[in-house]
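User: Quick sanity check before I run a bigger batch. Here is a single chain. Can you write out its predicted 3D structure?
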Amino acid sequence: MSDKENMYNQLKERVKARRLGKVPNSIDACDVTIRELEYKTTGRCKTHLPKGDKVFITVELENKMINLHNLKSSIAKECGVPVSRIDILDTNTGPSCTKDTHIGRKRNFLYRLLPINLDSYSDESDAELTPAPVQDCVSKSSPLEHPPNKSDNLPQTAFQVASSSENPVPPPSICIAQLLAAGARRAPKPLVDFKTFRLERFVLESSDGTDLGTSFGSWHIIDSCFKLKVESTVYNQGGFRKVYKAVTENEEKYVVKKLKPETIRDLKLYANQNEDEAVHRIIQSHTVARYLCQKFAYKVQEELGYDEVFLGIDTLSQELYFVEKFVTNATKNCIKYVNNTGLLYNDGDLRQQNLAEAFSHFTFEETNHRLMVLDIQGWGANLIDPAVTSAEVKNDEDIWMYSIDNAGLVGIETFLGSHLCNHFCKVLKLPSQLGDPSIEVVDSKCRSKYPLRNEKRKE
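Assistant: Done. Predicted structure follows.
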């Protein structure tokens, strides 16, 4: 036999031995890596999170293979704990390895330390006793026996309950479509642990509604430990923010909104605002719009308004969020009447459209032509996400007024060029701006942009 054939046969034997978990006769130990996991599970998938880094240990071999008992003994020696506390896991979601065949040819192992009250076992008895393993609920093997001692009083996991029942219970019925979907895509993980927020409210301290461009208010902490369980998947999103559903410990529903990274970038580039400044400005703008809407609704005797928006500061990461009450079917039923550039949509009920336009017109007159509330959208009497537009986008200190959706004089004049005063405008005795030469229009085509719509509404 040639040297090449000998080398090939030796290589084949080594590969075969490695596949079977065996090592050459001359070796009575081998090195493996181990990593400790947390004892308790986290999340809906019952995952054991890593507790430490990977380390190498040396494991004695028996019949040229890694033995479960020897592996546990080596880990126990490394950790300085009794063998009875070592529980080898197949993955970070379980199940426990209880036979030599379960570890097979692995060289990387995960383990957790079982509670200290299992230490009543002696080291000599560890070879025969298996401490309360995490069982696989779909395993066909019979439940493993473990000693009737203190471990029996510990709370059982769902896996243990399913596998240790004396009377077998059939699994729940799952349709074939769900089984096929499980192999086609990854299931979402919507809920994360509770976040704790410091909840703050902005209050307009002194304002008569005639000079809101320069009025101010103050921030007040209303809850320093407001807990919400926030979904990790995006529920909805607009041009500037992403929306996530959330619930309190009492199952009260909320939504939290977060500025998009590209919005934060644009704010810094064009408006010279960082995220902290922008979030506070948006909530302050919302409070201004909410105040004006309350005045408008009172004067026309109609139900119309904005829910309050709170500032939520994550106490752990210090990230900033908008916190609002959740309204069922808000996204599905939401209708836009006026956008933030002053264009009219007229996609909903004509009466609601007239009410929305009259509100924008009212804010312009109520503030002495200093600002206008645009981006009027919502459902029924509920409005959301307004845009406060000021005649001057930047003030004397070169600071961008309100938020990045402030379209300035262009937005105001676009609205005035397309708005036709209706019943609500007349009730409030608002002056008609249509065709008024004293109102300067940037784009001369604005007034004739919607001639057909205006003619129909005149009829």
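The mean pLDDT is 77.

User: Great, the batch can go ahead then.
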